[in-house]
Amino acid sequence: MCRFLVYKGKDEILLSKLILEPQHSILTQSYDSRLRLDSRRPHNGDGFGLGYYTSPSLGPAPCIFTSTIPAWNCINLLRLSSKTASNLIFAHVRATTEGSLSDSNCHPFHRNSLMFMHNGNIGGWKHVKRSLAIGLQDRWFSNVGGNTDSEWAFALFLDVLDRMGYDPDSTALNNSGFGHAVLRKAILVTIKSINALIAKIPDRKRKEREEGLDCRSLLNFAITDGHSVVCTRYVSSMTDEAASLYWSSGTSWQEDQSMKGRYRMERRDKGADIVLVASEPLTFERDDWVIVPTNSILTIHKQAVMIHPIMDEYYNPNPSYIRSTGFAVSKGLDATEEGERGE
Fold first, then answer.
1. Would you call 171 exposed, middle or buried from its count of C-beta atoms within 10 A (0-12, 13-18, 19+)?
2. Residues 6+ apart with CB under 8 A from 65
3. What angle do CA 150, 297, 251 make, to 5 degrees?
4. Active site residues
5. How far, in Å, CA of 26 to CA of 47, rounded?
6. What is the pTM for the complete model shown?
7. pLDDT in tens, 112-129
8. What pLDDT, in 10s, does the model give residues 301-312?
9. Are 157 and 166 in contact (CB under 8 A)?
10. What is the C-alpha to C-alpha distance for residues 261 and 151, in angstroms, rounded to an integer?
11. Is the per-residue pLDDT at 68 higher than 90?
12. Which of 28, 57, 180, 201 can pair with 228 through a Cys bridge, CB separation 3.0 to 4.6 Å?
């Protein structure tokens, strides 16, 4: 599984203050992921990617930099991040579950102003891929350049958005933004569509679970149009915990001058000038981070953070129910903080 990071701020921030410098930066997570439990493949070293928005005068599309070199061993990442600033940043370190090691398979993926990342997997993928691809309009089918389930999920999102009446290639929408409500609805329909495709897998194939077929999906998605951000923490199960996802907000992201790499989210008032969303916290200051509930959708709009439950067939209305972490752990991921785990 992978790790991702989202930054949205009122002001630009140097990429190095997120990517390189914090104690548990996403660069560190590429080789020392504290919530990655797969001892067979303990690293997120199958490439990485950055996406960030620049001056509107350069157009609405983000700048994307990807590489198959492990993040900890890429000198260009150090050079770039120490001289580049943005107010909306996506970062991703990859551990392959589907797809080969290539630049075309590195996140984030994008189409015009839209940018997308995924941590997780689509359940029963080998039995779903063909049906998903056949159902896409030609434009979105042709947009896929790699062979990961994640990029096909992005193609499905684009198709859903288009069928909702919001053309991803519209110049006006790419300049003004699609709107947080539209992005949120489209990503929910994307999840619903994936679940519907998996539900069509024949029973005889489902019985192969002992041979490696698992129809449960882990769908931690992040999507942005350069204005709003929508993230999901989701598992297609009523009893399992999803892969970990945290958020933090405050007025400034500052390094403690007494200890190199020790960053804190400062809160001088009730404002949220900075919002971070991450698969793993970038620091070990527990009070700075809040875990996103399983099967929830988080929206960042004008620095306001909204969290809604995803109320589908896998919604559990019992707030005291303790989900099992076994599925996420089997994928090499932790699901919750120590002391919050189910059996």
1. exposed
2. 49, 50, 51, 76, 77, 80
3. 105
4. 2
5. 12
6. 0.89
7. 999 999 999 999 999 999
8. 999 999 999 999
9. no
10. 34
11. no
12. 180
